[in-house]
Structures are given as structure tokens and as C-alpha cells.
Amino acid sequence: MTDVDVIIVGAGPTGLMLAAELRLAGARPLVLERRPEQGTTPKAHGLSGQILDLLHYRGLLDRVRGLVTDPVQPHRFPFGGVHVDLTRFEEPPLKALSVRQQSLERLLEEHAIELGTEVRRGHEVVGLRQDDESVTAEVRGPDGSYEVTAPYLVGCDGGRSPVRSMAGIGFPGTTYPEVNRIGQVKIPDGLTVHDNGDIETPELGRIEAGFTRTDTGVFALGSLTPGIVFIQTTEDDPGELDDDVPMTLAELGDSIRRVLGGDVPLGDPVRLSRYQFSARQAERYREGRILLAGDAAHLLPSTGTAINVGMSDSVNLAWKLAAEIQGRAPEGLLDTYHAERHAAGARALLQSRAQVALRRGHDEAAEALRAVFQELLDDEQAARRLSAHVAGTDTRYPMPGSGHPLAGMFVPDLALETDEGPTSVAELLRTARPVLLDLAGRPELRELAQGRVDVHTAKAEDRPADVLLIRPDGYVAWAGDTDADGLREALATWFG
């Protein structure tokens, strides 16, 4: 006898997104979080990439935009010690919003609870056992120990994941010695900020915006908000950080002094955080009835991608897991979670490890590499390609039954005209249901899909194909015109 359908360990963005997606698919998740309250240590400070499109498709993007603390949209993003300039693009190929992780977590928790999710804080999973039918979690809660059983359990419990360890899943890779300390501070007396972003200090004189490299580390300087200066230091430290210990302004000042050899005046802090980079990926994302998602499955040695990749894991997994629990999944459906997302995680690791190679060198050869790379990124096509890689918008899953260029790609948000009035792909995917979208009047293909997916007939000004079969995660499972055999194969593969 099971208590819930899925136990989710961890109430970060990945776990909460998974809970909401499972509820949309009709499953009953339970979220267990060891911390009694949301952490106060600042972590990620932005949301970028493919997940923004998915949040739009779920009707959540406007709520996320309401969390934005910095009205200036980032048009340049760092890539391993160089910058990708997107100011030339009318529609930037990498979308981003300045959203604090704590605010995002609160929104996602509210969303999951609105849909009927139970979230238990202060409940730590201390043991696991599984058999052919279920997983049982041993939990230590505020009122004592207890057990909870479900058909499946998903570890969304971070890079040091106890779930991953208890499941016996290897996590090979590298932890780099560099420690990054970030401060967004108000501009104090004694610090002059020039129009080009350079600063003038009493002790060190003028410091250029961008990256200053010394024998002891890197000092990064920038500003997006009037009256606020962004500072980051990077130093090698072989020790391992304790993420739960908050960083102080004095710690940032000490780090600046070690890197630059002098003091930089610092005003009141708006944000202080530190982090250490690792490049690791779980050997497998599934061990029996235990699965991994987010940082528990992969750690990326760069900023700006981890939340995107982790939440995308959740959206890919939820509909497959719900179908398995509800007895309507075709054979092998759940195994495609590892196949698709392990490959996507490996690709994210590829670009983030490339950033490590670009940023860690301090000799003349490394400077030359960064200079050449920066020149290449001045080319529009190179900037577009790298942006798509970082965003995950170039992710393509293998799809049987269709050789169409759109098959396996994230579906564009087409403007649609129906008999009931105007709508869009985003509106059709609001409920996280699979969709067959007939754009050319193909009743014989609509008939094949009846009863297995939602069927819609519409017209689009820019029609990429006659018919699109769209999975709940927004990826095109099949696209074509009169190939009934191909559509039949795709329907059987994904929806039984």
C-alpha cells in the first residue's frame, strides 16, 4: 500500500517544478525538505534559457516577471572570461531574467500548493529501501521518525544528494579549487564610478570594468543598476565550502585585498554570496524506482545554466512518471528520461567545462586564447550558436517516425486561429497535456490520435508542418503531412 504516488526529496526549483508538473498530470506528489525554513544564503540570481519558454507555456512567466528586481535586461553574458554581446539582436537568442532564487522558490512552492501538493519542511530522509513495487523513505521529522511509501522517489536534493548516495549511483567528475565571491553593493563615499563602468579608488586608483587578472586571482567588475556596483573575486582554495555559512562583507573585502593588493571601498550590501564549481554527472539518472534530477544529477562549472537544466529535467520526467504510475505508459517510456536528459546534461557540461578552460589560464597563451575567442564571438552566427548552446534551445531528442526538421525540437509558440477564436501553442500546452495540432485539415491523421492526446484544428500564418504531435514537455514528437505510419509509430512510442 502506497501513501502517495511520488516522493520528491528537496524543495528547490527542480523539486517544486516537478511537483507542480506531476499534479498537472494527475499524480500525487509529496515534497520532503530537510530544512525547516527556506535558506537565506543567496544562490542563483537569474533565470535563463529554455525554461523561460516552458514557464510561458504553463502560464507562469508573468508571475516570474513580477519577481524581477533589476529592470535592466542583461544583454551581455559572461562565458569563461569573455563576454557574448547580444545588444545587436532585436530578439536576443539567450533570454534571461534577474530573479533571486529564493523568490523563485517561493513562487514555485505557491504554484505547487495551489495545484494540491503537500510540502513538508523540516523532514529529512535518512534511509531508503525499494523493491519491485515501491520505495519506502525513512524520514526524521519535527515530531519524530516515520516512513512513507510511494511507487517512485525522485532525489532533487542538491549536489551532495543523500538520495544519490543511498541509491548507490556514482557521481564522477571534478571539483575545482577556485572559490568565487560575489557582492552587489551600494556605491559608497570614496568610490567614483565612471560612465564606462570603470571605478576610481583612493588606494588602487582606476580599475577597469570587466576582468582584472593578477597572480593571486581574478577581480570582476560591472554594473547593471544605477547606484549599485557588481564585484566578483575568484581565488584558488583547495578546501570545500560550507554553503550554509553566509558570506560577509568583510570576507569579500579580504578577498579583494588578496587579489588586488589593496582595498576597494564597499557600501551596504544588496547581495553577498560565494560558490565553488564542480563538473560532475551521475552515472545514471535512474536506479530501479529511484530517480535523480537537478543538481543531484549534474553539477555545472559555470553560472546561469544550472536552474534551467534542472527544471527542464523535471518537466521531461513528470509526464512520463505520471503515465507509468497511471498504467498508461508504453513500454520503455520512463527509460527515455535518462536517455534524453543525461545527454542534455552532458551537453550542458560540455559548454560549462569549456568555460573552465577559458577562464582558469593566467599565462600569455591563455590571454591569447580568450582574445581569439572574443573575436570569434563578435561574429553574429557564432554568438547565436553559443547562446543556443548555453540556453539549451538547441537540444534535440531522437524521435522515431519523423524526419521533419522540427521533430525532437522545442515547439515554437505559433499564433493560431480556430473556429472558437485566436489562441496559441502556449495556450494549448497550459494544462501539460499532449497535443495533436492539425494545421492543414488532415482528418485521417486526427482520427489516429483521438482518445490518446488532445486534438486541435487551427490555422497558422507561418505553418511549419501540416500536423504537429507535441509532448507535454513542449517537444515535437512528430511533424509531417500524410505519413500515417510515421504518426502511428510516434503515438505508440510516446502515448501507447
From TrEMBL:
GO MF entries: FAD binding; oxidoreductase activity, acting on paired donors, with incorporation or reduction of molecular oxygen, NAD(P)H as one donor, and incorporation of one atom of oxygen
Entry keywords, A to Z: FAD, Flavoprotein, Monooxygenase, Oxidoreductase
Names of the cofactor(s): FAD
Lineage: Bacteria, Bacillati, Actinomycetota, Actinomycetes, Pseudonocardiales
PANTHER family, per database record: BINDING MONOOXYGENASE, PUTATIVE (JCVI)-RELATED (PTHR43004:SF19), TRK SYSTEM POTASSIUM UPTAKE PROTEIN (PTHR43004)
Domain FAD-binding: 3-349
Gene3D superfamilies linked to this entry: 3.30.70.2450, 3.40.30.120, FAD/NAD(P)-binding domain (3.50.50.60)
Taxonomy, superkingdom: Bacteria
TM regions (residue ranges): none
Name the record gives this protein: FAD-binding monooxygenase
